[in-house]
Design a protein that fits this description.
The complex is a heterodimer of chains A (191) and B (253).
Chain A: H1 5-27, H2 37-42, H3 46-57, H4 60-68, H5 71-107, H6 115-142, H7 148-172, H8 174-183
Chain B: H1 2-23, H2 31-53, H3 58-84, H4 89-116, H5 126-151, H6 157-180, H7 183-186, H8 189-192, H9 194-209, H10 229-252
Helix pairs in contact in B: 1-2, 1-9, 2-3, 3-5, 4-5, 5-6, 6-9
Classes of the chains: A mainly alpha (191), B mainly alpha (253).
């Protein structure tokens, strides 16, 4: 029985990666689309979305609820905010993934691609995903109010990430990015 | 009875696929794949003849021809590889590197087995040899599919069908041969139906995706950034390391 386990594992591994690829190919659109102005238009509302993040993780709503309402409402508020916070974090993760997808869409055609650099990037991205998912788990366990500081740092990071991505895109297509740049809000994050 | 139905249905599907490819004039687009299909069909009919007229020679004939089909399968993988990465010069470099690593690992394994005097891998039986050949195929396909998914290489419906169908068949073959070689499983009649059922499922996938010709999507015009990989990779690296450090900082607060 034990000698068959590697073959079973190998078969399952191949089926798993096949399933992942088929799912990914059907669900996601071609990453080439990421480089088109249509997607850059979507970035225009990024400032507004960050403000939503500030509001979700900010303390003013919680302070008000704590002061003015009974304990039942506190629990309800925490529950609903957790759902909102998780949705927001997942969207933030998706946006970072888009940066990586834009990179691989270009790298796959690049003649001077460096294998070492690609492996480093892939590992770095994997590590980022692990950290980001840990944060999602942390919020899920403790709620958004108790993880304000951690998420505050994430908000700051998200803003910088967008800025870096914007610079990257400006090199690709300066005309489209000029519009995006004027709509970005790089305000500080309130903890 | 079930085995007979599966056998005739599979033959019919193979004839149908070959006829469609000749009628649609796309047999030349995937010559190795259709050679594989044709050889499997011929082998299947030859097996039927041997089973009918010389039943005593059937087991040996079965395993030798099975070994042949697995060998031609490597040519199918080579065709998949060359068709998929034809226009992806970056991804092909990574694929070459990884496949060379696999080749080196296999050669090292064989040499180590020969030097240590332990069992020479081409096993005690033909079934074990086929199982090992399929296992290596599954590793190669794993690398190709992982790169396809990671680099999101755009490919057409025909190639998707070939990759999905063949990978599914190889994965089920590896598992069924692994378990089938065990004393408790090999003798069970229901276990012997696993491989024909999996092959029929594979043929269904191929019939669905290879009914007509679908060209691979052409890559769009090269943008300015595509000529500057170094700049791009440095930017992405910086973005990722910054993202990670911020998350780490957050975790420590």
């Amino acid at each position: 029985m034990i000698q068959s386990l590697p073959y079973l594992f190998l078969g399952l591994l191949l089926l798993a990666v096949l399933g992942w690829w088929v799912w990914d190919a059907i669900i996601h659109k071609s990453t080439a689309e990421l480089l088109t102005p249509r997607h850059l238009v979507g970035l225009r509302s990024a400032g507004a979305r960050r403000d939503v993040g500030d509001r979700i993780f900010g303390s003013q709503d919680w302070d008000f609820v704590l002061r003015e309402t009974p304990s039942e409402i506190h629990r309800m508020f925490q529950r609903e905010r957790t759902v909102l916070a998780l949705a927001w974090l997942r969207r933030t993760r998706l946006r970072t993934s888009q940066v990586m997808h834009a990179h691989v869409a270009v790298a796959r055609k690049s003649e001077d691609l460096q294998i070492g650099m690609e492996l480093k990037l892939a590992l770095s991205y994997l590590l980022f995903l692990i950290l980001c998912n840990s944060l999602v788990g942390w919020v899920w366990l403790r709620g958004p109010v108790r993880t304000r500081k951690i998420v505050g740092q994430t908000l700051q990071w998200a803003a910088q990430l967008r800025r870096a991505f914007e610079q990257l895109m400006a090199r690709v297509d300066p005309a489209s990015c000029r519009v995006v740049g004027t709509n970005f809000n790089h305000g500080t994050v309130r903890n | 009875m079930l085995t007979q139905i599966l056998w005739w249905t599979a033959n019919f599907a193979e004839v149908l696929l070959l006829a469609r490819s000749i009628q649609g004039k796309f047999v030349k687009r995937y010559p190795t794949f259709y050679f594989y299909l044709g050889s499997v069909l011929i082998v299947s009919l030859l097996r039927f003849a041997v089973f009918t007229f010389r039943p005593g020679s059937y087991p040996a004939f079965y395993w030798y021809t099975q070994y042949l089909a697995a060998t031609v399968g490597y040519a199918v993988i080579l065709e998949i590889y060359s068709q998929i990465f034809k226009k992806c010069r970056g991804a092909v470099r990574i694929a070459n590197g990884l496949l060379l690593c696999i080749l080196a690992a296999v050669i090292l394994n064989i040499v180590a087995g020969a030097v240590s005097g332990s069992a020479w891998p081409p096993g005690e039986t033909m079934a074990a040899l086929e199982r090992d050949m399929r296992a290596l195929q599954s590793v190669l396909l794993f690398v190709i599919i992982a790169l396809l998914a990671y680099y999101r290489v755009p490919i057409g419906r025909n190639l998707i069908g070939i990759v999905v169908g063949y990978s599914f068949y190889v994965a089920t073959s590896v598992m069924s041969l692994g378990f089938g070689s065990l004393p408790g499983f090999g003798s069970r009649p229901e276990w012997r139906s696993v491989s024909p059922v999996a092959y029929l499922a594979t043929l269904s996938i191929w019939c669905f995706t290879l009914w007509s010709y679908h060209a691979n999507p052409e890559p769009g015009p090269e943008s300015k950034i595509e000529r500057d990989y170094k700049f791009l990779s440095e930017q992405t690296k910086r973005i990722l390391s910054r993202a990670r450090s911020y998350l780490k900082m957050g975790g420590e607060l």
